Amino acid sequence: AQSVAQPEDQVNVAEGNPLTVKCTYSVSGNPYLFWYVQYPNRGLQFLLKYITGDNLVKGSYGFEAEFNKSQTSFHLKKPSALVSDSALYFCAVRDGNNDMRFGAGTRLTVKP
Amino acid sequence: ETGVTQTPRHLVMGMTNKKSLKCEQHLGHNAMYWYKQSAKKPLELMFVYSLEERVENNSVPSRFSPECPNSSHLFLHLHTLQPEDSALYLCASSQDVGTNTQYFGPGTRLTVL
């Protein structure tokens, strides 16, 4: 069965600095990988996904993620963090059987 | 904001009550989902419907009963819940069950007393 791990419960960065939110996965077959963001009192919003093709995926709000097959990772990155990026971030993986699993989430706090 | 609405947004109920959560999607999607979100735990997929047929039931207790009368509406009927069922219940939809992106509603915050 597939699984996804977000090793950090909390990530703190200063505004203007680059940010990375880590995600590793385990899946049989080709992975379909997703990042979602959740702002307070809101549902999850889609940020980006990797299905096939370029390993570097660009998404909403200036975020990008790099698919690394050898390290089974799909880390979320942004070159310059904004205070408004503070939220809960979820990585998810779907396998060839269409079962989707989410990580436990990483809380990102960007300080002014 | 995403074309998926949920009502009510907040619900407090006793263990002997019966209530229902409603989800509606305005995106023309064929698949709908119920998730449970508890603090510091991964999202738990509860049910999946494709073209109004249940295609997945992840060992959810029978006190949760889903209903999908058409492809735009999804209900979660609740009865004799336990305090540990308190959580945020999220509805999502996608074009089909597959690699497509899921779009989430804002959730219903459920508190069981």
Instruction: Write the H/E string of chain A, N to C.
Output: EEEEEEEEEEEE
Instruction: Categorize the overall geometry of chain A.
Output: globular
Portion in helices of chain A: under 10%
Poorly predicted spans of chain B: none
Radius of gyration of chain B: 13 Å
* Total count of helical runs of at least 4 residues of chain A: 0
Extended strand count of chain B: 11
SSE arrangement:
The complex is a heterodimer of chains A (112) and B (113).
Chain A: E1 3-5, E2 10-14, E3 19-21, E4 24-26, E5 32-38, E6 44-50, E7 56-58, E8 64-68, E9 73-78, E10 87-94, E11 100-102, E12 106-111
Parallel strand pairs in A: 2-12
Antiparallel strand pairs in A: 1-4, 3-9, 5-6, 5-10, 7-8, 8-9, 10-11, 10-12
Chain B: E1 4-7, E2 10-13, E3 18-25, E4 31-37, E5 44-50, E6 53-57, E7 64-70, E8 73-79, E9 87-94, E10 103-104, E11 108-112
Parallel strand pairs in B: 2-11
Antiparallel strand pairs in B: 1-3, 3-8, 4-5, 4-9, 5-6, 7-8, 9-10, 9-11
Report on this model:
The complex is a heterodimer of chains A (112) and B (113). Chain A has no helices and 12 strands. Chain A is mostly beta strands and 112 residues long. In chain A, strand 7 and strand 8 form a beta hairpin. The mean pLDDT of chain A is 92. With 113 residues, chain B is mainly beta. In chain B, 0% of the residues lie in helices and 57% in strands. The N and C termini of chain B lie far apart (31 Å). The model of chain B has no long low-confidence stretch (mean pLDDT 91). At the A-B interface, strand 5, strand 6, strand 10 and strand 11 of A face strand 10 of B.
